[in-house]
Amino acid sequence: MNVLNAIKGLFKGKGSAAVESFDTVESAISATMQTATDIWWKAFQGMLPFEPTHKNFKPLPVAYTSTAYLAQLVTGEIKFEIADKDLNAEVQKNLLPNLDRIVQLTLVGGYTVIKPYISPIGKIFFDFATSRDFKPIALDENGHITEGIFYERIRYKGKIYERREHHIFRDGVHTVRNTAYIYGTRRTVELSEVPKWAMLLPEGRIPSDIPMIATFRTPYANNIDLDSELPVSIFANSIGTLHDIDQAHSEYRAEFKKMSAKVFADSTVLRGNKGIPDDYFVNVSGDGTSSIDNQIMAYAPQIRETEHKADINTELRLYETQIGVSSGTFSFDTSKGLVTATQVLSEDRTTYNTVSQLQRQLRPVLEALNKITVTLARFYGIECEDGECAIEFGDSVFEDTGTEFNRRFQMVQAGLLKPEDFNAWYFGVPPDKAREMLPEMTGTFGGE
Length: 448
Fold this sequence. Notes:
Elements: H1 2-8, H2 31-44, H3 62-75, E1 79-81, H4 85-94, H5 96-109, E2 111-118, E3 124-130, E4 134-139, E5 145-156, E6 159-170, E7 173-182, E8 188-189, E9 203-207, E10 214-217, H6 239-259, E11 262-266, E12 281-284, H7 292-295, E13 296-299, H8 305-323, E14 330-333, E15 337-340, H9 349-379, E16 390-392, H10 401-413, H11 419-427, H12 431-436
Parallel strand pairs: 11-12
Antiparallel strand pairs: 1-16, 2-3, 2-10, 4-5, 5-6, 6-7, 7-8, 7-9, 11-13, 14-15
Helix pairs in contact: 3-5, 3-9, 6-8
């Protein structure tokens, strides 16, 4: 049992901070890609690598809002079920709630790597890392990572320790090697020196047909480094536009500061304020003897709100084109700030195509996780059912589901679609389960 507990900790681990040094192992990340990746994550935080154009620079959270919006469209109606009842319960509880976040972070950093692990009490959880905290070393022909390192850091007794979890898939075997270091040095320490890592094995191997880590990546061609196999952020080519949006918004905010109504008056007129001006009254030097009318000057120019709002929205239209969403998806509202479309209409083909493209990328990731989860459970001696997984993304955001129901039902009646496929689509279940749900054939489905 002690050995089993040690093995159960084999795949547990999460990079909790950006890796600052990749100098110990060859990496698939070139210096060019590392620089670009750092910029993408800074943009996500609202900290673009440009000098502020105004004293009170006011960026808009466009990178965050746009990736969150697309992630919601990709996963908002997703159904993902695996054949085994108990394992599926773990998937529904520990993976699906995180898919929205995983998709968003993938759009930002270009890829995420997902791996299941089993806790000491036998529960399956799903860990993931991004281009910010995972080091890819080797990729296969489809761009899926076959070797890489997860990083985890812990402060213990006044020192920071770093664990490197090295994954290698080769010749039908997935190997995991755990090594601990004093952070910032090359000095290794025993895993047992940190209580949380004490039960981890230095090395373990699992027979598998596929890597025990699943790679979810954006579908965009890499024009940052033409020699790199790594994907790019959805806004990799929009950094300048994001800065222009921030600049336009800062100019808009500055307009209110510069053009707000004021009263310029001599200090002798401001006796009620003891000569101290506030946000409305501005103290100026006067002779103190002129008439009161000559000592006070009102200043209330017309703020060019419409022009500035149009400038921001013009830049947003360009950004929409660059990331592949329909025109008008994002807009700047003077009372609400940056807002997104309240609904996606069927004619928004640009957004639809982008979301469909991302869902096509996500489908094989979920299929791989189905296989990985079953392989991992069986490796630990957990009996489980193997079978196809059911994946349904849903499309009510883009089209009328009632119309789609009638269309597919008519295809069943015409013999163009199998009843079990209709059931699998409607109920979001695997094909095998959909077959079991079928009643005895009746005239409705073409029977006698």
